[in-house]
Description:
Layout: E1 2-7, H1 11-22, E2 27-33, H2 36-46, E3 50-54, H3 60-70, E4 75-81, H4 85-97, E5 101-104, H5 109-120, H6 128-142, H7 158-168, H8 173-180, H9 184-198, H10 203-211
Parallel strand pairs: 1-2, 1-3, 3-4, 4-5
Helix pairs in contact: 2-3, 3-4, 4-6, 7-9, 7-10, 8-9
Amino acid sequence: MIDVLLIAPVRVYREATLEALRSQPTLLLVGSGGTAAEAVSAANRLRPAVLLLDLAVPDSVAAVRAIRSGTPGTRLVAFGVEDTRPAREVVIAAAQAGVAGFIDAGHSLQDVVAAITGVVRGEAPCPPRIAAWLLRHVQCAGTPQGPVRGELPASLTVREREVLLLIAEGLSNQQISERLVIGRATVKSHVHAVLRKLGVTHREAAVRVLRTPGGAEGGAGGEVPPRG
Length: 228
């Protein structure tokens, strides 16, 4: 039998899911909870084979990191994934943190059981829609962007570098949002951080930093509103 721990924030939904899973002869429900702290505590105490984690739990990604660090033998399956841009960001972050599989928001009990048994076998169950998000993210992160002649400050994060290179391609905030599968508000935040760290006041000046050897240049001219 497979030891399973369930973490979901909505009590009614959690109890209904527990009742459904108890009917499965191959599963043994060892505990449940509704918060990230309960997930980490229970995982460390019970060390289940699989932890079912609803991504609607606040700080769910941080919980994934902590569980992967403290209980590396526990495989995590994330469920309750809605088709929204913020959900895509959480999915990508959860995958990077160590989630082994995903289940759509419209899942059936059969889908849940299949995902649990799949991760125990070393598989990575993932609905096609979520797999497409992850694939696009990997493709964007690994796409060659051409030579960068200027040196970028070490203070730029990996994501900020990605955003800067996409700005240099002429992409608007909306296009960057779609390419990286992140929200437009997140893109705007990264753009402002890039401009500040490069010491420039508009996008065109930031692009010139890439094209000119010698590092960042001071901003010239007025603020140009972010494209989008």
